[in-house]
Design a protein that fits this description.
The complex is a heterodimer of chains A (615) and B (620).
Chain A: H1 2-19, H2 21-29, H3 31-47, H4 50-64, H5 68-117, H6 120-124, H7 128-170, H8 172-178, H9 184-219, H10 221-226, H11 230-287, H12 295-307, H13 309-337, E1 358-365, E2 375-382, E3 387-391, H14 398-403, E4 416-418, E5 421-422, H15 428-434, E6 435-438, H16 449-453, H17 468-476, H18 480-485, H19 503-516, E7 521-525, H20 533-545, E8 551-555, H21 559-562, E9 567-572, E10 575-580, H22 582-587, H23 592-614
Parallel strand pairs in A: 3-8, 3-9, 6-7, 7-8
Antiparallel strand pairs in A: 1-2, 1-4, 4-5, 9-10
Chain B: H1 8-17, H2 19-23, H3 28-39, H4 43-75, H5 80-128, H6 132-137, H7 140-159, H8 162-182, H9 184-190, H10 194-231, H11 233-238, H12 242-295, H13 300-341, E1 366-373, E2 401-408, E3 413-417, H14 424-431, E4 439-444, E5 447-448, H15 454-459, E6 461-464, H16 475-480, H17 488-497, H18 516-528, E7 534-538, H19 546-559, E8 564-568, E9 580-585, E10 588-593, H20 595-601, H21 604-614
Parallel strand pairs in B: 3-8, 3-9, 6-7, 7-8
Antiparallel strand pairs in B: 1-2, 1-4, 4-5, 9-10
Classes of the chains: A alpha/beta (615), B alpha/beta (620).
Chain lengths: 615, 620
């Protein structure tokens, strides 16, 4: 039986070690700060025993008519203790709370460090809100446990270890008597905890419904307005708000009673003190027995009983802080467990020359999160300097194929070679430096035009001069003139606090961004879709003439984009179904390319007619 | 044309919602007054709560006095009978105090809940009465934050004892008065540090406010940096910028931690001053009170009462200091809420009190008269309507409708065709007065639509919108907007198109359990409910199965009978049978006629039509 108990104990202990690993780590890391803070806290708590004793002596002096000089000394001592306590309170706040701030900063930094190291497939399936909440709310929960949690716990423990002894020293039996009602406090708190938690969860759930209802009505505002039914939405909000109010009040009914209840337990002690203690003074002064207490002790007890309420409440708070931090640390640990699925090569090989030669050898591919195979038996060689176009319907595998160039997703060995080296062997940073990949989704940072175009340059000059590579890239992307036409040219800010560009301008900016780092392979994944035909032609010509030009791989939906390519690859359901030049493929009347071609012709006819109307 | 400042759009967006930066400094008086005005609306809980505070304060003041009385009158004179009585009175005072505390907590919570509910409804009502353009300018997320998080912060402020905090002030005043009443000189001595404490608190509260604002704004830059990076993570990886951005993150993180540390320092300085002040006060009481007791001028019990009271004097002060942070963030939220309540609505919120009545006797004659319209906020200031190429492109006004005129006769079935961005949906938005044209006017039955009541006008037009938006509720709720029973017009419509509705089917997560056909039928039935004379279809671009397609076609044929109908079509098959089809191109009306004449003209319509026939999946 003893063995069973010890087993269970060791299980609890290892669970505790696991639960509190972050807390312990940061307490250890900032142990100097924590120790100084705790020391100051002990001093505060030890000093806190003195004031009631001073009062006791003051009363005794007054009763026994001792010299007044002693009174002045006690008054000064009281003031001195307060001053020292004040200083120590300053010290523990500065050390304990600030240590927790450092811990929060470190944990947030660790989280960011980890997140930045994960591959893009991690972000494909996460909600941004969840990732943000980890960095804010969960880190904060751990931080509070390290700071306020430890503080409240230590404070309660020191009080519990000192005040009762001081009281015991003054009068053992009175201590036992007046403290009798106090243990009810933690019992009551624990008993109500379940109900409080249940009601709290109901309140949270209702809050979720309010958020959802608000979100829905804000999204559907056009519908509501066009039917002039705003009043109905308001009524719905009123009703759900009323419900929320009722649930909150149900919670408050318990919560507002807990504090006064603790107070009541203390006050019972006070009544006992008054009645029994007062009795003892009266009897004691008659019979002068050993158990009798003096008036001074009586007054000191009054203060001590008041001091005992706080540690009881504090233990409850400490448990609460700790539990919150435990669930948060598990969420964080889940993330910390993950590793990148495109790790850097263990024995990196750098090719002799980066000229843009690509070879697919029997390549099959599926996304890490999805068992469906998206690319199958791809065999393709791209010579340096070639322009390859990839066409195919939506879902044919174009984007998947292009995302392999910069190794955004994991690929098996011996399937994709760039400049003769397996992509898995390339140092990943060097590989990505060689590849200018422009995806179909447009993302710009809220920075200046210059900052966005020069994103890939490590050393672009900060100043009014946009720098040669930036301007050059913008020219090739047919954007330079429009940028100089902006009110602050290259210094114009984009995004939230700046101007918003048109879709086509944004897209060309992403192309310029890729060009600025002078990649040996340029990969455009449907990256000309928002650009009109004339501008597109200009860009495609410019690409041929760009300095240090090499291989280009372009996926597109428009004939105009692909027809001048050296080779056109037609993808269908993850396989290459046709391969050749525009002339060759357009001649095959039954092929997939022909269908594509015919439809595009009608579309281009339509577009050219529209341009006619325009003029 | 005069050049406006470069970032008109940006600055306008900022001024509308980011009170955080500018308004944090000078909020208090104005916001507090507005908030208290709402508090005073709820007289019942306010009166009971306040009565409980007064009762509780009285008990708090009495308890130490009873204790002192017991010392003086029972213990020292050794009167056991009186000791029992005083102990009972003490117990009674305690029970009164605890009772008052529980009730006060509850009634103030009730009051706080009522006030936040009021504010929530007021805010929501105001948002519902905002013109659509406000929703274009402000991302939904931000408005959502106002209604949920800011109201929640206010709620927390009340729950954490905003009202008890006000009561603490009452408590402090009560104790001070009681101290002075018990013994004038000792009272004055015990409370002598108090004015100093008030000055110190005022000083620190100012510094705390600055410190908290600092750390809040740094936290928000940290958050927006992280959010942007999470969104752009792919780009960061592609350009090998992980290290650089991580360094930036760490800088912001450190910067935020420093601000946090700064506010801790202010707080760490503030709290001990209260401890020290209390020490001075009680030290003086011991000294002076002890002397007075020795001289026989002061009873021992009164002195003990003083010790207790002087200590409880500083407890409320400490509490106020502790809760200052919650109070500040609650007030910042209140500030943001009140700033939205000041926005200009498109109609009075009070108009929601009575149900909206559609316009009587509508014929359905609609005329657009030389209408110019642009979504750009600069457009109304533009006097020269032609595109001037010497203006920087970010300031150029792009017109969605240019000198557009159209006459739709009552009962006509009109098809509108054109590319995305041609201005088709804009026509409808203008007719519903979601926006006002910069020039020209729109007439309904010969009268400018601005002369009608906005809500009545909208209620008179039945519209089937592009994306069928479903509210969380039942099939019926979605058609009737939570009115009891479907109207006769709706049930007739269902029987005419041969559709058997499941009225009590409840929407699940994002409407996943409603089929495409059901969604479309809901959209049609919503528009049918009031049996309107004008009827608009803004067609969805989504592909449909043939069954749904047939259902829609039946619904369409029914709905257009004897109504002025405007059919905005993406699939040209929808408008083939219209009385007249107009083709819009970049805000200009370029073709007009029925299907046959337009086909023979071989213009844009004919080409669009041929293209769609060749590729049924594409839309115009």
């Amino acid at each position: 039986m003893l063995e069973g108990t010890s087993k269970r104990l060791s299980k609890y202990f290892s669970k505790f070690l696991n639960d509190s690993s972050f807390i312990r780590h940061y307490l250890w890391k900032y142990r100097r700060w924590v120790l100084i803070g705790l020391f100051a806290l002990i001093v505060v708590d030890l000093l806190d025993i003195l004031p009631p004793i001073f009062l006791k002596y003051a009363v005794d002096i007054a009763v026994e008519k001792q010299p007044t000089r002693l009174l002045a000394i006690i008054a000064l001592a009281y003031f001195g203790v307060s001053l020292l306590q004040g200083v120590c309170r300053y010290v523990w706040r500065m050390y304990l709370i600030r240590a927790s701030i450092f811990a929060g900063r470190d944990l947030r930094g660790k989280y960011a460090h980890h997140i930045f190291g994960l591959s893009v497939s991690f972000f494909d399936h996460r909600r941004m809100g969840d990732l943000m909440s980890l960095a804010i709310n969960d880190v904060e929960a751990v931080r509070i446990a390290v700071g306020s949690g430890l503080l409240v716990f230590a404070d309660a423990m020191f009080y519990l270890l000192t005040v009762p002894f001081a009281m015991y020293w003054l009068s053992p039996w009175l201590t036992l008597l007046v403290c009798l009602p106090l243990p009810i406090i933690p019992l009551m708190v624990l008993k109500n905890e379940k109900e409080v938690n249940k009601r709290f969860e109901e309140v949270q759930a209702c809050f979720g419904r309010i958020s959802a209802m608000t979100q829905e009505s804000l999204h559907g505002v056009r519908v509501t307005k066009s039917f002039a039914r705003e009043d109905v939405q308001i009524q719905r909000m009123r009703e759900i708000g009323e419900e929320y109010m009722k649930l909150n009040l149900g919670l408050a009914r318990i919560q507002t009673a807990i504090g006064p209840f603790m107070d009541f337990c203390m006050s019972i002690g006070m009544v006992l003190l008054l009645f029994v203690g007062g009795r003892s003074i009266i009897i004691g002064s008659v019979s002068s027995q050993g158990v009798a207490i003096g008036l001074g002790t009586f007054v000191a007890f009054q203060r001590y009983i008041q001091k005992m309420v706080w540690p009881m409440a504090a233990l409850g708070m400490a448990v609460n802080y700790y539990q919150r931090s435990v669930s948060s640390s598990y969420r964080l640990k889940e993330i910390f467990k993950l590793t990148s699925d495109v790790p850097n090569a263990a024995n990196p090989i750098l090719p002799k020359e980066c000229k843009g030669h690509v070879e697919f050898r029997n390549l099959s591919f599926r996304f890490p999160s999805d068992p469906k195979i998206v690319l199958k038996d791809i065999n393709l060689t791209i010579e340096p300097g070639e322009r390859i176009a990839i066409v195919g319907t939506i879902g044919a595998g174009k984007s998947a194929m292009l995302s392999l160039f910069p190794r955004l997703y994991p690929i098996d060995r011996d399937m994709l070679f760039i400049d003769g080296v397996d992509v898995n062997d390339w140092p990943i940073e060097d590989l990505r430096r060689q590849i200018g990949y422009v995806s179909q989704e447009i993302f710009l940072f809220s920075d200046t035009v210059m900052g966005n175009v020069g994103f890939g340059l490590n050393d672009w000059i900060e100043g009014n001069d946009p720098g040669v590579p930036i301007e050059e890239a913008a020219r090739v992307a047919a954007l330079h003139e429009e940028i100089t036409g902006l009110s602050s040219a290259y210094r114009t800010r984009l995004g939230e606090r700046g101007i918003s560009l048109s879709g086509g301008q944004k897209q060309r900016l992403t192309i310029a961004r890729a060009l600025a780092k002078k990649p040996s392979i340029l990969v455009l994944d449907d990256a000309l879709s928002s650009v009109d035909v004339q501008t597109e032609e200009k860009i495609l010509k410019g690409l041929l003439a760009r300095p240090g030009r090499n291989t280009e791989v372009i996926a597109a939906h428009r004939i105009s984009t692909v027809k001048d390519a050296d080779k056109i690859v037609v993808l269908n359901q993850g396989r290459i179904v046709q391969l050749g030049t525009h002339q060759e493929l357009a001649a095959q009347r039954s092929g997939a390319y022909w269908q594509f071609f015919e439809q595009q012709q009608l579309k281009e006819d339509l577009e050219s007619y529209e341009n006619e109307i325009q003029q | 044309m005069t050049k406006a400042p470069v970032n008109t759009r940006a600055s306008e967006k900022d001024s509308s919602l980011d009170v955080e930066e500018s308004g944090f400094n000078n909020f208090q008086k104005h916001t507090l007054a507005s908030l208290l005005k709402i508090v005073f609306r709820h007289k019942w809980p306010l009166c009971v709560g306040t009565a409980m505070v007064i009762l509780g304060t009285f008990a708090v003041l009495m308890e130490p006095r009873i204790f002192g009385y017991a010392i003086d009158e029972a213990i020292i004179p050794k009167r056991m009978d009186l000791l029992e009585k005083t102990a009972l009175v003490f117990l009674l005072a305690t029970i009164v105090r605890i009772f008052a505390a529980i009730k006060q907590g509850y009634f103030f919570e009730l009051l706080g809940q009522r006030v936040t509910q009021d504010l929530r409804v007021m805010l929501f009502t105001r948002l519902q009465s905002m013109p659509v353009s406000v929703y274009d300018r402000n991302p939904g997320g931000r408005l959502l934050t106002r209604v949920t998080n800011d109201v929640a912060a206010l709620n927390e402020m009340f729950s954490a004892g905003f009202l008890s905090m006000l009561c603490n002030i009452l408590m402090v005043a009560g104790i001070l008065a009681w101290l002075i009443f018990l013994d004038l000189r000792l009272g004055l001595i015990a409370s002598s540090v108090f004015p100093l404490l008030v000055v110190i608190s005022a000083y620190f509260s100012k510094r705390l406010k600055i410190a908290y604002r600092d750390s809040r704004s740094r936290l928000s830059s940290l958050n927006s940096f992280l959010a942007e990076n999470l969104h752009g993570m792919r780009i960061i990886h592609l350009f090998n910028r992980q290290k650089l951005h991580l360094e930036r993150f760490n800088r912001l993180n450190q910067w935020y931690a420093e601000a946090q540390g700064g506010s801790v320092r202010v707080f760490a300085l503030f709290q001990p001053t209260i401890t020290v002040a209390a020490g001075i006060s009680i030290g003086l009481t011991i000294w002076y009170g002890g002397l007075a007791t020795l001289d026989g001028n002061l009873k021992l019990g009164v002195l003990v009462t003083y010790f207790s009271l002087a200590m409880s004097l500083f407890q409320p002060v400490r509490e106020i200091a502790d809760k200052w942070n919650i109070f500040l963030s609650g007030m910042a939220s209140a500030e943001r809420i009140f700033s939205i309540l000041e926005w200009e609505p498109e109609f009075e919120c009070t108009s929601f009190a009575r149900p909206v009545m559609p316009l009587a006797g509508v014929q359905g004659h609609i005329v657009f008269e030389n209408v110019w319209f642009s979504y750009s906020p600069n457009a109304s200031a533009v006097t020269d309507l032609t595109d001037s190429s010497d203006v920087p492109p970010d300031l150029r006004v792009s017109w969605v409708l240019k000198d557009f005129s159209l006459d739709i006769s009552p009962g006509e079935r009109l098809g509108v065709v054109g590319h995305t961005g041609a201005g088709k949906t804009t026509l409808i938005s203008l007719l519903l007065r979601f926006y006002e044209p910069q020039r020209g006017r729109i007439l309904l039955d010969g009268k400018d639509i601005r002369s009608y009541d906005k809500r009545s006008l909208r209620a008179s037009i039945g519209i089937v919108q592009q994306d069928v938006f479903l509210f969380s509720g039942s099939f019926q709720d979605n058609i009737t907007f939570w009115q009891a029973g479907a109207t006769e017009a709706v049930t007739r419509f269902f029987s005419q198109i041969g559709f058997r509705p499941k009225f009590d089917k409840v929407l699940q997560e994002r409407g996943s359990n409603f089929s495409m056909g059901e969604r479309q039928v809901i959209a049609f039935a919503r528009a049918m409910a009031a049996d309107p004379k004008i009827w608009i279809l803004d067609e969805a671009t989504a592909n449909m199965d043939s069954e749904t397609e047939a259902l829609i076609q039946r619904a369409l044929n029914r709905a257009t009978v004897s109504r002025t109908s405007i059919l905005i079509a993406h699939r040209l098959a929808t408008v083939r049978n219209a009385d007249r089809i107009i083709v819009l191109h970049k805000g200009n009306l370029i073709e007009s006629g029925n299907h046959e004449t337009l086909m023979s003209e071989n213009g844009l319509y004919a080409r669009l039509y041929r293209y769609q026939i060749a590729d049924p999946t594409s839309v115009a």
